[in-house]
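seq/struct pair 1
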Amino acid sequence: MAKKTYHYYPGCTAEKNASASNYETSVMAMCEVLDIELKEIPDWNCCGASIGYAGGGELPRLAMNARNLAIAEQENPELDVVATCAACWLAQRETKERLLEDDALMKECNEALAEAGLKYEAKQRVRHMVEVLIEDIGYEELGKHVKKPLEGLKIAGYVGCQTNRPFGIAGESFENPKYLDKMIETVGAEPVEDYEKKVQCCGGALAFSEPEKSQAMIKDIIEAAYDGGADMIVTPCPVCQMNVEVYQEQINKRYGTKFKMPVVYYSTLLAVAYGKSAKEAGLDGQVIPATKLEEIAKR
């Protein structure tokens, strides 16, 4: 396959020692095998997903994203912009669509960007990495590179809400998207059929303000995975990964459960299946070790 090149927006969680730095590690390992080049947007800024709705106002939030996109346009308008973080992808895709639909808002935004010598024209597509894998690479090609099939593993594909609503992945059901299940099958593992909490919100926005509500939602997500016989959960979202993994100890104390369910990224599964080491696949960044994946990586 010919090399495919994209503008890359890493987002704050992918920064060194941040909560999803292991996600970026696994993405880079996966992309090396698939001959995908990610050209990081220079001098990018936060997308504002965590604070953008907290009183800062609509225009500043949109301008933050438009600045990143305008820089990418200035660098090379022919390349799509790709984000790995679901919240970053959602924030930037919403920005593009909102500004295209509202000429007055686009004008205001560009007045702000002009102070930095930039102008946004919304020429590029804004995509999540899973869209690239599905639409540009395809499941058949993804499967061709598997060296260590993840046989014997049963995995719950937890999509969450941000890669599913309001935009979703083209051609997928909003109620029961199948792309993670297909990726799981592609690497030789077994997906949990009819995983009933596949698209439930993890309560990320409530994790600090109302933790009891967030943890109740996470408990249901994990219980449904156990009920389906899952060895682990896989997700495309750093917020989902973090919430569902790191709060298990608190949930165990609150509810008397004994959860110890690894939560990994789709890129981690692919990296291990492609023959990468546990470190290259980002498995050393797990709070709850994905022991069975580590064992496969060592073979």
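seq/struct pair 2
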Amino acid sequence: MQLTALARRARPDNFTLTLLATIGVASLAPCRGRWAHGFDILTDVAIALLFFLHGAKLSRQAVLAGATHWRLHLTVLSCTFALFPLLGVIGSPLAQLLLTPSLLAGFLFLCCVPSTVQSSIAFTSMAHGNVPAAVVSASISSLVGLVLTPLLAGLLLSRQGSISAQGAMDIVLQLLLPFTLGHLSRPWTGAFVERHRGLLKFSDNGTIVLVVYTAFSAAVVKGLWQHTPVSALLGVLVMAALLLAAVMVINLWASRRLGFDREDRIAIFFCGSKKSLASGIPIARVIFAGQAMGALVLPLMVFHMLQLMVCAVIAQRYARQYSAGTVTKT
């Protein structure tokens, strides 16, 4: 019975299954020629709309509220944009043995992506952590990631020849422009976005599905599966699991050493140990423009699947401890 319940909590969510199905469709029926060009245009429009809506959603009050709990937010940002890239560099020698060059570049890019928003908040709430802090911290991570992710990716991937630091700087304007316009439009669009939160989720998920389909279509046409051995795919799973485990252990240890209470530690754990598909894949689309993106985003997708399954189990464990009354504030 317990094994069945554990398996149910750890199984992939519906969206992960949708992404796997999208990869399957792209592998069997990739878009080509004019269809590929049309999908490219549609995807660019969807990405612009996605960042516009995120800009309209983020209130200035939420950003200002972050200043009152700066130690927590700084800890989360350090995990996301310092610890992850450091572990990526440390793990590069092993990754070079296990992965193809494109998958290695994708692994390093994964380390530069901002934290998730929706799932970080959901898991923090489920575990009875500091939800307001998680809301602000995850939102700040997404905002800061618009600048830091391209810069970090340019730094880490310049050796791989995937992108240059100048190229990373150039795409900041492409991502920040719709976000800034959305935020400036908040007096007129903010209330609409708040009333229609499902629209933002649809935009997130729909954009990711579009990018994944077009990315894998282009990669399949160029021989992705012929040039990617099964051993390399297993290597992606191994590297993602090692990265997630290392981040979670260091995250828990550091938040205790820094003296955060239980609720704050939960928020730090779930916000600082995850990476966002919703932000990462659209950013990758712009950074790696003109390249076969399929292998480059595969490590991020695998990590996303693992983080959701592992965090679901851990959040349930925290929730059971809370319900049993066996926890304290410290």
